[in-house]
Amino acid sequence: MQYTFRGSLLKEGGRTFISIPFNVWEVLGQKGLIPVKVTINDFNFECKLVPKGNGKYYIPIVKDVLKIINSSEELDISFEIISHLTRINNNSPYSIENPIRKIDSIRIIKSRDGLCGQGCVAMLTGVSIEEVITLMKAKTSLSKVIEALDYYGIRHSDKMVYKLKKDQKLPKCCIINTSGHLILFYDGKYYDSSIGILEDFDLNKITGYLEIIL
C-alpha cells in the first residue's frame, strides 16, 4: 500500500530528514525501524524509517539522495513497506536456487587491510576480490557482507550466533567475527584474507559467527 503526502526537507545538525505527518504506529500498525521504498518527485530509493517516539517517524535523506532532490519547495512524497532492503543485491542474476557456485572447497584469496569482509565473500563465491570490492565498495560491515552473500545466492543463517558455549563446535562453514575482523572457517581450517590459512585459532577470540549453509 502506498502512503502519500507532501513535505519539506528538515535539517537537524548535519543530517537531513522528512517528517511523516501522521502517526505511523496507528496507520501502519508497525514499530521499530521499518524498511520502505520511498519515491520523492519520481526519484526512488530504499531506507528504514527512523522512530522519534510516540508514533512519529522521519524518512532519512542521505547525501547522495539529497544531491538529487535538494529543494526548498514542498515535495511530492510516497512510500510503501517492503520486507527488507535490497540494496546491493537488487537485480542480482543469482538466487538461493541458482547460486554463483556450490561450495565444496575454499581457495585463499588475499585482501588488503580493512577489506576482510570482501575477502570472505570472494573466497565463498570464487570471484576476484576486485569484483567483490566493486559490488560492496571499500567498506566492511556485517550487514554489507550479508547483502553480498544474498546477491551471489550464498545461503546463510538468519542471524549471528554470539559467544561459543563450552565444547560447542563451529559449523562446517561460517564467517567468524573476531572483534570486528572477519575470517572464514571451512572444514577445520581458518581462512584469513589478511594473512593466509590457519590450522588453529583461539576460539576465545570469537565474538560471533554466521553459518554458511552448504
UniProtKB/TrEMBL annotation:
Cross-referenced InterPro entries: DUF1905
Superkingdom of the organism of origin: Bacteria
Protein name: DUF1905 domain-containing protein
